[in-house]
Amino acid sequence: MHEDDEEVEVPSKSSKKREMHALQDLGEELVALSKERLEEIELPEKLLDAIREAKRLNSFGAQRRQMQYIGKLMREVDPEEIRRKLTFWDAQSKENAAELHLVERWRERLLEDDSAFDEFARSYPDSDITRLRTLARSILKDRAAEKPPKQYRPFFRMLRDTIRKETD
Fold it and tell me: Rounded to two decimals, what is the model's pTM?
């Protein structure tokens, strides 16, 4: 053996096992995806069929075996591309959740405190405060009469659209 020959490191049994478990976990994430999201990821047909089968199974033992099979099939694909796509969707989901929470907080504040409309108007100058006040009054009137608030959804949508317009 010469000095300039590089020694090839053979992965240990434990590291191989960890890698296989990571691929199986990634496969479980794929099984949890909706049909539409699955179609957005380019996967081999054999893997897609195995994922569809896993979604169909009810028996715990059968699901476990199917997940092991999916883990085996995952060795044939580039897991990084799949991870990037899942990370992107996760970030989008968190962004949407943050936006939803902001809209919900404004909705509650506006329904509880009439002076919050002034603050909302300062924060979102393009908002139709008159229309928002009208919807809020209708909701409060329905609440007082113990009726289902008919304007709850339009009020929420208007707040959401106003906030989106300002943040875009």
Answer: 0.56
